[in-house]
Amino acid sequence: LGVVFFELTTVGVEAKADGKAVRVAAVADGGACAAAGVKVGDVVAGVGGKAPDSPEALRRLLRDALALGDARVTLLRDGQTVAVTVSLPE
Q1: pLDDT tens readout for residues 14-73
Q2: CA distance 45 to 31
Q3: Which of 20, 11, 12 is nearest to 45 (CA)?
Q4: Does residue 38 contact residue 70 with C-beta atoms inside 8 Å?
Q5: Residue 87 carries which DSSP code?
Q6: Is 73 helix (H, G, I), strand (E, B) or coil?
Q7: What is the DSSP annotation of 1-26?
Q8: Which helix (H) or strand (E) holds 65?
Q9: C-alpha to C-alpha distance for 84 and 38, rounded to whole angstroms
Q10: Gap between the Cα atoms of 63 and 66, Å rounded
Q11: In the Cβ-directed half-sphere of 36, how many Cα atoms lie within 13 Å?
């Protein structure tokens, strides 16, 4: 049995807690989140329909979603809801 560790840096994003929300603090050029259109300052409203309340919760939700394929991520940006698909790099 192999254990695979998943960190937010795997998809090229850093997040920070913002009250009960999770805000994108950094997006790595060339990473999966950049390719999906995630931007610094976005609030992560959901991953697969579940809202993260901490960066750790975001990490777990992305890990679980990406284990099954792509992750559907809902973001709040400038008062608008934006849906993106994050895929693991090959």
Answers
A1: 999 999 899 999 999 999 999 999 999 999 999 999 999 999 999 999 999 988 889 999
A2: 20
A3: 20
A4: no
A5: -
A6: strand
A7: -------GGGGTEEEEEETTEEEEEE
A8: helix 55-67
A9: 8
A10: 5
A11: 26
